[in-house]
Prior knowledge:
Elements: H1 7-28, E1 31-33, E2 41-43, E3 50-52, E4 61-63, H2 65-69
Antiparallel strand pairs: 1-4, 2-3
Amino acid sequence: MFAALDPTARLIVVLALLAGLYALSGLLWPYTACNACKAGKHASPTGKNWRDCGRCGGSGKKIRQISRLLGKDD
């Protein structure tokens, strides 16, 4: 069946499958590493105190964009 399609239709089918797999990965693994802190904590400007990252709340992870589009929230 796939061999009977013309090259443009094959490309569209492959791209649709890849998009579907990417959306599925967003549902299965909704979090990614926080780009702001890399580890979940921030040093204060003086370097003596630690505080939770404002972006990830100290967890070191944040929600992926695809997961947010699919309705997953913190």
